[in-house]
């Protein structure tokens, strides 16, 4: 049965992450010429070019991007198998924070994936606002985090962060909700530490559209229920606009930016099992 060589995959991942063959070779403790030879063998096995080479360094091709996700997962599973054979596995807790705005229909699949590939882990999952989850991750209260940020918020790009996707934001209400008789727009929002709460009020002030807080929900599910009940208008990302809700149209409602989701991985000093889980998470999304 044909398969990829793990050492070649390890060199490929190191080079792709480092952005050059020489820097990647340092990560796997090999010479650049040895790593170049491994990459050539890997490309022959794949039957496709995996890296674009230029004076600025290297970047994965489309085929390379596809292989990169598989490679990370295979390497993480290889380490897991080694620990298992050596009886080094211990039950470890993985604390995962997930933004309340993240697609709820995808959370179950994500957790199944983690449980299947990291059977040694006890999962502790917390749903909350992105601000609280990002703060918990920065302070070490959670190991990995799925968070939402507004485009242009200026979060630093690091190797410990994986960009997932962008989505438009929209004003949302129950279909047919008539706002014309309202002197102040009735708002349905999450608490004030939510970025979309602050964004909605800021944009309405700039647009000079008077508004009042009609209902404050504790989570997105409660916010959606209040919107369906016709209590007012709210601000949601596209994937959170569920059944019974529609994009609200009114000249009193200003334009909104897009948002993006990212995965914050475990820190480098986390335990081996937690770091392996982080790589499994990365592979799931890439």
Describe, in plain words, how this protein is organized in 3D:
There is one protein chain. With 286 residues, this protein is an alpha/beta fold. The chain is 41% helix and 24% strand. It folds into 3 domains: 80 residues, Orthogonal Bundle (Arc Repressor Mutant, subunit A); 99 residues, Periplasmic binding protein-like II (D-Maltodextrin-Binding Protein, domain 2, 3-Layer(aba) Sandwich); 90 residues, Periplasmic binding protein-like II (D-Maltodextrin-Binding Protein, domain 2), CATH 3.40.190.10. The chain is built from 9 helices and 11 strands. The strands form 3 sheets. Strands 3, 4, 5, 6, 9, 10 and 11 form a 7-stranded mixed sheet that branches. Strand 7, helix 7 and strand 8 form a beta-alpha-beta unit. Helix 1 crosses helix 3, helix 4 packs antiparallel against helix 9 and helix 5 crosses helix 9. The longest helix is centred in the first third of the chain and has 24 residues. 34% of the residues are buried. The model has no long low-confidence stretch (mean pLDDT 87).
């Amino acid at each position: 049965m044909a398969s990829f060589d793990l050492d070649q995959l390890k060199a490929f991942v190191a080079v792709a992450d480092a952005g050059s063959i020489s820097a990647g070779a340092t990560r796997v403790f090999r010479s650049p010429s040895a790593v170049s030879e491994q990459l050539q063998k890997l490309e022959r096995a794949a039957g496709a070019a995996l890296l674009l080479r230029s004076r600025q360094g290297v970047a994965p091709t489309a085929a390379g991007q596809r292989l990169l996700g598989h490679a990370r997962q295979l390497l993480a599973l290889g380490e897991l198998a080694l620990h298992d054979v050596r009886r080094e596995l211990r039950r470890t807790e993985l604390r995962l924070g997930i933004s309340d705005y993240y697609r709820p229909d995808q959370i179950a699949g994500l957790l199944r994936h983690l449980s299947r590939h990291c059977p040694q882990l006890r999962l502790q999952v917390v749903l909350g606002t992105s601000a609280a989850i990002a703060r918990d991750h920065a302070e070490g209260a959670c190991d990995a985090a799925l968070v939402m940020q507004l485009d242009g918020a200026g979060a630093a790009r690091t190797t410990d962060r994986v960009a997932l996707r962008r989505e438009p934001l929209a004003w949302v209400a129950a279909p047919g909700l008539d706002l014309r008789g309202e002197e102040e727009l009735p708002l349905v929002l999450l608490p004030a530490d939510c970025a979309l709460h602050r964004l909605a009020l800021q944009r309405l002030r700039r647009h000079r559209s008077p508004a009042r807080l009609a209902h404050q929900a504790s989570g997105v599910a409660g916010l959606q229920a209040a919107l369906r009940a016709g209590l007012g208008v709210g601000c949601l990302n596209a994937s959170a606009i569920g059944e019974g809700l529609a994009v609200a149209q009114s000249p009193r409602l200003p334009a909104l930016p897009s948002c993006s989701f990212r995965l914050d991985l475990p820190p480098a000093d986390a335990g081996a099992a937690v770091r392996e889980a982080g790589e499994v998470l990365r592979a799931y999304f890439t």
